[in-house]
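From the shared-data thread, chain only:
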Amino acid sequence: MNALATEPLFDRDGWWNPACRAFASLRSVSTFRLQVLEQWLTANWRGRTVVDLGCGGGLLAVPLARAGARVVGVDVAKMALRAARREDAPPWLAVVGDMNNPPLRAGSADVVLLADVLEHVTDPAAVVRAAAVLLAPGGHLFVNTIARTRRSRWLAIDLAEGLGYVPRGTHRWEQFLDPEEVERMAAAAGLLPVATVGEAPRLLATLWRGAVVLRASRSRAVGYAILFRKESNATRA
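Structure, as tokens:
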């Protein structure tokens, strides 16, 4: 089982509660990532099958279901899944499952999401492979994670955790992944990069709101997102 390194921090209630500070930054950055997805996929989500691996409390899954997508969220965090299911959204599936071996049919997804996931798992390459198997030919994998740099350690751990914008212990610097590492994992799984953007904190807005606020950046030295496409002749694992 490819367990989340910080699972107890995520397996709790409060994901959608504005008064819950533990998830305030995740709520904020999820808004930014939904905007990135819209720009990249120019998405009419209605009828598209989206699999959100490591969906947590559904901060991406629920809005996409509301936009008309057929959404399946997969996570090991049962309390987080219960929080997701309580949100008012069109019917969608939130299932308990291992990201290494999700309980879904190969080739069944148009889009797979790995949002704020790879920096928390013990075998990120295995998770990328599992995501690629779920994609139909021509489908897309969306990944966002954190680069392993001195700057990211200062911002994501020293600053964000030190000021309480995310719970202490959320991140381990040695598990951060440089973009080139993720691109190699994706290439080995038969995926091609088609878009990328850096993620950087808006420092004044973050300090004002008491939660991380992101902006797009040309630099991928802190956080970044990459969109991959599955080649139509890719071999399924």
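The first strand starts at residue 49 and ends at 53.
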